[in-house]
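Sanity check. The docking grid for iron/sulfur cluster depends on where the pocket ends up, so I'm generating a full predicted complex first rather than guessing from homology. Inputs follow.
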Amino acid sequence: MTDIKDKDYIVVVQCHIVKQRCSGYYCEKAFNERTGGFAAYPKDKSYRIMNMTCGGCCGRAVHRKLSLFTRRIKKDEGMEKDRIVVQLSSCITKDNFHAPPCPHLDYIKALIARLGLDVREDTFISDISEKRRKAGLYGTN
Ligand code: SF4
Ligand code: SF4
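Predicted complex below; grid placement will be based on this.
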């Protein structure tokens, strides 16, 4: 993984099913406040940031979307892949009240790795859900 300080562009990939209802506000808030999965990003640096969904189960569209995006941004702006990082939203990576993590998480990560992009997990981390996860209340961890 390239040093996070060398990243300039964050692509947040979110669960397509969850985004039928969720605006993504808490992901945006977590980034703005540099909390949860964004805590390691320096606060004094500005980033380009884009949200996209996985495209629906099994997440295969992630490859097509990111492939086209990386080709476009390289052609238009000369941005190489090592300046881009993919951040998987917590509704994909974490057990929570609504559901266990995405059953295709490893597959999605493999698709992103195949494109030569760095990937990180988590966005918004709910204090209540984190306590419940640690207490094993969801029964899947
Ligand atoms: S992590 Fe939360 S705020 Fe972000 S897309 Fe998923 S449900 Fe919405
Ligand atoms: S593949 Fe995973 S992240 Fe995508 S819609 Fe299905 S459950 Fe959600």
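Relevant for the grid: The mean pLDDT is 95.
Also worth noting: The longest helix spans residues 61-77.
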